[in-house]
Amino acid sequence: MKKFALITLWLTSTFVFAQLGQMGQLEGGKEPVEWSSKAKKISDNEYELTFRGYIEEGWHIYSQFTAEGGSQPSEFIFENVNVDYELIGKAEESKTYTEYSDVFEIDETFFKEKAIFKQKIKLLKPINVITVELNYQACLEVCIQKNEVFTFSLDGSKVTPMPQELTDHDIAETEKLKLDIKNPELVRSCDDDGTKKSLWGIFILGFLGGLLALLTPCVFPMIPLTVSFFTKQSENKGKGIFNAILYGLFIVIIYLLLSIPFHLMDSVEPEILNNISTNVYLNVIFFVIFIFFAGSFFGYYELTLPSSWVNKMDSASTKAGGFIGIFFMAMTLALVSFSCTGPILGSLLAGSIGTDGNAAMQLTSGMAGFGVALALPFALFAMFPGLMNSLPKSGGWLNTTKVVLGFVELALAFKFLSKADLVMHWGLIKREVFLGLWVLIFIGLALYLFGKIKFPHDSPIKKLSFSRISFAVLVTAFVIYLIPGLWGKNLKLISGFPPPMFYSLFEQESKCPLGLECYKDFEEGVAVAKQKNKPILLDFTGWGCENCRQMEESVWSEDKVFQIIDDNYILISLYVDDKEQLPEDKKFKFLKPDGKIKKIRTIGDKWATFQVVNFKAAAQPDYRLLTPDGLELLNCGQNKTDTDTYHDWLKAGLDQFKK
Fold first, then answer.
1. Which of 348, 447, 469, 568 has the highest CB neighbour count under 10 A?
2. Number of neighbours of residue 388 by Cβ within 10 angstroms
3. Domain range for 638
4. Has residue 638 been placed in a domain?
5. What number is the average pLDDT over the span 29-50?
6. pLDDT grade, residue 509 (50/70/90)?
């Protein structure tokens, strides 16, 4: 199971680098693959396009035909294919290599040193320029998602890579995304009280996660050992306390450092964290990882980082001494405790990469809370050693804690699978299916707590403790609460976790929240608003947005809020994470203010860009009140999460519209 820990790290780092294509350069700005291309005429209407890549030493890229279930194959996207020309067969490849992958446990096919692709085409009309896009992975120790655009001139002239040019269609669609907001000062007037509360809320959740980690067999026994080391090995008591506090501080710093890459991502593209959160592949990977985490917590196998890493850190702490030595001791704790803290941190990581535009800061807050909780006892018991006598003795209760966390990990696993299902509209994990799975999981937890189910490392139970029985009763009550949700009851306590109520086995298609009439295209909704002379409630939302579901099922569901929306507003719900492809004639290249090009291929691409361009925001939910002709009535309403406050905001917008 050591290997699985490496797989987890490899997959996470691979995905992070894939989203940060700008980081795909080697030292000195050199690319891992240098490309060239040429077109060769075969007959009057047939040509051969050649793509030649020179690969840096140690790097490799994958064949188009590498086995499924492994790394991403190279993929060509031919612009205007079957309109201007057609392909003759698949692209031919130069020499490839096939090796067994320990990560994916399959044979993978790839190129080393050079990669040559040749594609024959047949013209359907007289043209002279062909544009082809290549998506591929370049791998060394981690894999980087890369994109290359080739422009071929069929008259034989020399071709060099050219910048992507905007067509009249691209320019027209770009202009359509820009609204003529009559009072732009309101766009930037959103207060950030909700964000501040959210950061503190995430800190508290991280702190609670750290407290859970303390109660696991990987961490708890180390508290008295480590504190005793500092108090006995130091020259005096004051020095021992100082070193223990420093040790705790380094623990906090180590966990804070884990969030730094996500601040870099947040600065690359406003909606990148949302794209990562709703990425289908990443959510399926998290589903698989959490299933494995659950198995580890149940005691069927052990997930640990390689012993060589731990030994190196331990050796470094011994040799270095002083502040540096204490830092390496803290690093050793982080590595040794990975099998227990890793799943909890994974939950925190996955939960923080969300639809909030401030997700990187949320992750930092969560990591800070986790680190503080983990470090607190080391400093506290060093200052007051007598308190260690009050600590419970290690025993079977530590394993019980792990098993309970295993059931929680299992429940969270299906949350990630559900998110992938929602954004792709597969229809596999409808609301009733999700709740049914949770009912079964928590019934299993209740049976375990009552002593009816045992796992490999459980100690014999002579008598159930009062705390265990109480917790079992609480879990049983939660199961009873879930059951009515199987036939449509609104479960407000867990709103945001299950799929939305309208994503149901009993609905033929995905409708609007709570049965409200809504429009999922902005222009269509505006046309109706003009016809009915009603104000617009513009709802930037997402299939994977838990906060959006909480608002809909906890605030919108209240009668007075529901009625004012239903009777007086035209609701336009724009899903910024929808992965459904736009029709070919609606896809376009968007010119950003910095001169860069963004390809708009999916419904989510379009509405996420629309939100950023017009409202300078990337968070969901984001509520705006507009007149049909583009006048923003009041400032944004995403922070008005109280029912009365939200209702008053809607009413004030309606009064403003009537004026």
1. 348
2. 15
3. 184-191+512-658
4. yes
5. 84
6. low
What's 592's domain CATH number?
3.40.30.10
Across residues 284-289, what is the average pLDDT? Answer: 81
Q: How many domains does the chain have?
A: 2
If phi > 0 it is left, if psi is from -120 to 50 it is alpha, else beta; for residue 304 that is beta
Rg from Cα positions in the chain:
28
For residue 487, being part of any structural domain is answered with no
Cβ atoms < 10 Å from Cβ of 624: 26
d(CA 421, CA 278): 10
Cα atoms in the 13 Å half-sphere on the side-chain side of 251: 29
DSSP H/E element including 541: strand 536-541
Which pLDDT score is estimated for 160?
47
Residue written as tokens 């029985």?
469
Strand (E) or helix (H) holding 123:
strand 114-123
Select from 633, 620, 629, 462 the least CA-distant residue to 550.
620
Which of 395-399, 438-442, 640-644 is predicted with the least confidence, judged by mean pLDDT? 395-399
Q: What is the pLDDT of residue 147?
A: 78
| Digit-coded pLDDT (tens) for 71-81 | 888 999 888 88
Do residues 88 and 46 make contact, with C-beta atoms less than 8 angstroms apart? yes
Q: Is residue 153 part of a domain?
A: yes
Regarding pTM above 0.70, the answer is no
Q: What is the DSSP letter of 543?
A: T
Calculate mean pLDDT across residues 525-542: 91
Task: Give the tokens for residue 543.
Answer: 């299939």
CATH of the domain at 122: 2.60.40.1250
Burial 435-456 (b: 16+ CB within 10 A, else e): bbbbbebbebbbebbbeeeeee
Cα–Cα separations (whole angstroms), residue 420 to 129, 287, 501, 579? 38, 10, 17, 10
Establish if 451 belongs to a structural domain: no
Distant-in-sequence contacts of 173-177, Cβ < 8 A, 24+ apart = 173/586, 173/588, 173/590, 173/600, 174/588, 174/589, 174/590, 174/591, 176/523, 177/590, 177/606, 177/609, 177/610, 177/613, 177/614
